[in-house]
Write a structure and sequence with these properties.
The chain is an alpha/beta fold. It has 2 domains: 197 residues, Rossmann fold; 114 residues, CBS-domain (Roll). It is built from 18 helices and 15 strands. Strands 6-7-8-3-9-10 form a 6-stranded mixed beta sheet, sandwiched between helices. The chain has a 4-stranded antiparallel beta sheet with strand order 2-1-4-5, with helices on both faces. Strand 4 and strand 5 form a beta hairpin. It is globular. The mean pLDDT is 89.
């Protein structure tokens, strides 16, 4: 995957040609290995294991970038290479344009203290410290005065829904509550970048969903740049703005949840997406018809009826000279007033409109209520197309 220089400058995280090989002589093996060899071939012929193989990608500011794959795919190794908890064998990891791979140890420590936080699957809380002291730990390492850091920790504790639990010890909290403390500890230092290594996989399903919702809620407020590791595809499409599917150390596909569900590149990706309810992932844009029945506000009701006959539909969408949606004229209304000569503006209704970015599942109630297609408009109220009942049903049945 090539990355333009413009993108590199704007993106807080850019990885280029990243490799991680485990074994006695990884650098020498990398010089000798045939790039076409599979992971199993490399291990059989050299005794070394390729964990990350020539991976390149970028993460945009404020987005959640999910890396998803089965156990052993290399995803956890990858996220640790970003923070350099694991040393890459080759490649670049640029954080705000600075290569962390060549960064001196002193600068790397400062990066972890001020710009980057990590949340692990196992909470890693200090059992002998109270909850509020666990949250304040990163601020303590920074050298912040005690009263100031405890005040800050109390504020963050409230933001993750744990008000009143600050004086308890981790053992007195449930697993979900402990993970909230881990999340609060990461947020307390106000990092620009947050790395999550399967943070919710050890939690019960109900608590896991609650934590996913909590993180989505927090992200809508704080807008951090996040890299989120998971082996659960449903979690990936729920949490991610973009998803990278990983297999044997390589990225198989990168795209939005909609792109991956709608157009899986191979059987490996297709196996993940086949059980996903498509109408909960795909947007209106993927099923709308751009060629819909529309009329100018200056045309007559008879003209509108003729257009409905041509499109074999029960409504026409009325637009002005700039293609701006003015309302919907149903066949029933048109037939009732066809001989009265009423102006078009008096007959049209401001029907429910939908954005092209809306999920298909949000249309079901509206489609049930209306007996004609639903108009799709952009943020400037320009008519883009329409979605009919058949397209919605096909999307649901395809799930």
């Amino acid at each position: 995957m090539s990355i333009s220089k413009e993108k590199q400058q704007d993106s807080p995280i850019v990885c280029k040609g990243l490799w991680k090989i485990f074994g006695a002589n990884p650098e020498n093996i990398l010089k000798e290995v045939d790039p076409t060899w599979s992971r199993s071939e490399v291990q059989e012929k050299t005794g070394h294991v390729i964990a990350v193989k020539d991976v390149s990608f970028q993460v945009e500011r404020g987005e959640t970038f999910v890396v998803m794959g089965l156990s052993g795919s290399g995803k956890s190794t990858l996220v640790r290479c970003i923070s350099r908890l694991i040393e890459p064998t080759r490649g670049e990891v640029l954080v705000d344009g600075i290569d962390t791979v060549t960064m001196p140890e002193k600068d790397l420590i400062e990066l972890r203290r001020h710009k980057l936080s990590m949340v692990f699957q196992h909470f890693g809380l200090l059992p002998h410290r109270r909850v509020v002291e666990n949250i304040a730990y990163g601020l303590e390492v920074r050298g912040m005065p005690r009263d100031e850091r405890l005040e800050k920790a109390g504020e963050v504790l409230e933001s993750v829904g744990l008000s009143g639990w600050g004086d308890n010890y981790p053992r007195e909290l449930s697993g979900g509550m402990q993970q909230r403390v881990g999340l609060a500890r990461a947020l307390a230092v106000d990092p620009e970048i947050m790395l999550f290594d399967e943070p919710f996989s050890a939690l019960d399903p109900l608590i896991r969903r609650e934590m996913q919702d909590e993180l989505l809620r927090l992200q809508s407020v704080v807008r951090k740049t996040m890299v989120f590791i998971t082996h659960d595809f449903l979690e990936a499409i729920k949490m991610g703005d973009h998803i990278a599917i990983m297999k044997d150390g390589e990225f198989v596909q990168i795209g939005t949840p909609e792109e991956i569900v709608a157009n899986p590149v191979d059987d490996y990706v297709r196996d993940f997406s086949e059980d996903v309810p498509r109408h909960k992932v795909l947007t209106v844009n993927s099923i709308m018809n751009n060629d819909c029945c529309c009329c100018s506000e200056n045309e007559t009701v008879s003209d509108a009826l003729a257009m409905m006959d041509r499109y074999q539909t029960q409504a026409a969408f009325i637009v002005d000279s700039n293609k701006s949606y003015q309302g919907t004229l149903t066949r029933e209304q048109a037939m009732a007033d066809s001989k009265s000569g009423s102006p078009m503006s008096q007959l049209i209704n401001k029907e429910t409109v939908v954005s092209p970015d809306a999920l298909i599942e949000t249309l079901i109630a509206t489609a049930t209520r209306l007996n004609h297609p639903i108009p799709v408009v952009d943020s400037d109220n320009k008519l883009l197309g329409a979605v009919d009942h058949r397209a919605i049903l096909l999307a649901i049945e395809g799930s």
